[in-house]
Write a structure and sequence with these properties.
Layout lengths: L5 H16 L4 H25 L11 H16 L11 H23 L1 H11 L4 H20 L3 H26 L7 H20 L19 H23 L6 H19 L9 E2 L7 H20 L1 H11 L1 H6 L4 H27 L1 E2 L6 H14 L4 H17 L7 H15 L12 H5 L6
Antiparallel strand pairs: 1-2
Helix pairs in contact: 2-4, 2-6, 6-7, 7-11, 7-14, 7-15, 7-16, 8-9, 8-10, 8-14, 9-10, 9-14, 11-12, 12-14, 15-16
């Protein structure tokens, strides 16, 4: 193959793959993934054993591949002993992925184009909420079957869903509003602590918060109230940042919000009534996968409605030219305050979910590393885009887990990837693209 034509030919392959899947609606992909996870549930262990794998690849084989890579890196750098037989696992993982995921997904999704489009058109006759609930129900079924095969998959999926909500909430401020806020881990910490104070303080006995105030069997029904309380307290905390910073211009929000993050972290480290640096443990196990999925889906819907509303359009006008927006009678201060508090509220809800997934919370979880992580998700996925936030959160979360075997080298690979994205796609992978719910859940044109 001529080296000068190689990139063009590779691009042509991806173009043909895109054409192949172009007429497939979301329903078709969901049916394809459902076939994949059912096949894995039935034949995954047997195929893994046949291919010489110790167990089913829990994260699409990425962990297995990077464990081999980590072993080779340690051989080169530290001179550690390397198990050369483990190299066989790489082609075995690729074969597993091909048989379990790639072939069934391609066959089912492409075969189901006409029936899936017909079903999508039929669902269009119902209210949009019915169409969305049907397809979200199928999506949840796929995720539930995939996650129940491994506890590691389940916790990874939960944390990824929470990351989506957190990334979307920050994109409201850093993307749609055009400011640069560093306070989101602080809002998340407030939501995590306040929701824990609600659930542990009222319904659980704890060495820090004392004995439970109430004990009844359906206490878990109060969990939405705990999340709402955490979100509202985070929004209240956002006022501390918003009131002084929005009287200024330029980079002052970044400075004030970073100071706020350090203040919140220091506050929780020094208040012994909330556990101090040890934190709070013993949160009830109420953050099940259905609860998180419903909360995140509702959050995506609410945030998308906000950024596409009149308030969202005003927010874009303020971002593009605040002086011109004021001249066009936009109340810029009210618009910015509303967006900032709205983003902080959802960050607080994400913090409440995180505290009850891990069933432990301490101030060290909400430092500079968490800030770098969520900023990476926002800017990698794309500014001013709900699609971009979802892609960024999922990509960075899964990449971070996949690179875990590389240990410290993980924090070299991810920043390098971000640098490349910033060079070639300064606004992120999918930026300035509206999330059209009707288009997402509707049928596709078939040639």
């Amino acid at each position: 193959m001529d080296e000068t034509h190689a990139p063009q030919q590779i691009g042509g392959i991806f173009y043909r793959i895109g054409l192949f899947f172009k007429p497939v609606p979301l329903l078709g992909y969901l049916l394809g993934f459902l076939a994949c996870v059912l096949l894995e549930q039935l034949a995954g262990e047997g195929l893994a054993s046949l291919l010489g794998l110790p167990k089913i690849p829990v994260l699409f084989g990425l962990l297995t591949i990077f464990k081999v890579v980590a072993g080779m890196v340690n051989l080169l750098i530290k001179g550690d002993v390397f198990n050369w037989a483990s190299l066989v696992h790489i082609p075995s993982v690729l074969a597993y992925l091909t048989v379990i995921y790639l072939i069934p997904l391609g066959v089912v999704a492409r075969t189901a184009v006409k029936p899936a489009n017909s079903l999508a058109r039929y669902l269009q006759g119902f209210p949009l909420v019915i169409t969305a609930l049907v397809q979200l129900g199928l999506m949840y079924t796929v995720l539930h079957i995939w996650a129940e095969m491994s506890d590691y998959r389940l916790i990874t999926l939960k944390l990824t869903l929470i990351a989506i909500l957190l990334t979307l909430s920050l994109n409201i401020i850093n993307g749609y509003m055009g400011e640069f806020s560093c306070s989101h881990p602080g809002f998340m910490a407030i939501g995590a602590y306040m929701s824990s104070l609600f659930t542990v303080g009222l319904f659980s006995s704890d060495r820090v918060l004392g004995d439970a105030v109430f004990t009844f069997s359906v206490a878990y029904l109060s969990f939405p109230l705990a999340l709402l309380f955490g979100g509202m307290m985070a929004a209240l905390g956002a006022l501390i940042v918003a009131i002084p910073s929005f009287k200024t211009r330029g980079d002052y929000l970044a400075i004030i919000s970073l100071a706020f993050l350090f203040i919140v972290k220091s506050f929780f480290e020094n208040v012994q009534a909330l556990g101090g640096s040890r934190g709070i443990a013993g949160q009830p196990d109420w953050a099940a996968l259905p609860v998180i999925f419903i909360t995140v889906a509702f959050g995506i819907w609410t945030i998308n409605n906000f950024v596409t509303s009149t308030m969202g359009k005003a927010l874009n006008a303020v971002r593009d030219d605040e002086t011109a927006a004021e001249a066009m009678t936009v109340n810029t201060r009210k618009t910015k305050m509303s967006a900032f508090l709205f983003g902080a509220f959802w960050a607080g809800v994400a913090g409440g979910l995180l505290a009850h997934v891990l069933r432990y919370v301490n101030p060290a979880m909400f430092g500079i590393q968490k800030l770098a992580e969520v900023l990476a998700m926002v800017y990698f996925g794309g500014l001013n885009s709900v699609y971009g936030s979802i892609v960024g959160a999922v990509s960075i979360s899964l990449l971070g887990e996949a690179l875990r075997p590389l240990e410290i080298l993980k924090w070299i690979v991810i920043p390098l990837l971000l640098i490349l994205v910033m060079i070639y796609r300064p606004t992120g992978l999918i930026a300035f693209k509206e999330f059209d719910v009707r288009q997402v859940f509707g049928p596709k044109e078939v040639d």
